[in-house]
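Quick start: read one record
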Amino acid sequence: MEPVGPRTSWTFVTNHARILAMILKDPEMRLRDVAETCRITERATQAIVSDLESAGYLTRVRNGRRNLYEVTPGTLFRHPAEGGHEVTDLLRLLAALPPRAEPAGQPSPDGDPRQRGPSG
């Protein structure tokens, strides 16, 4: 049996949690901006928001031509191992994290090798 290298395609935070944290931080954020920040497509972002809305984790209200999203307070984690805990406890931690710039010399998601600051 050949040795298996480390798996690098997984992350600790899912896109569902990442999107909920972003909505908690800025309920008026456009899904296009959410998608860009999460480094996923707009279509994937819309599907995740639909999942979260269907499951009761967020609500959407039309405000003119824009949508206003709100994370539903008191919702619990779905898995029984964390089931007694509110999702917002984790989301508040994630929403409080400042964005970090790419290390110098590392390519950014758009292929630009320059360091990206908080404004993108």
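The first strand starts at residue 58 and ends at 63.
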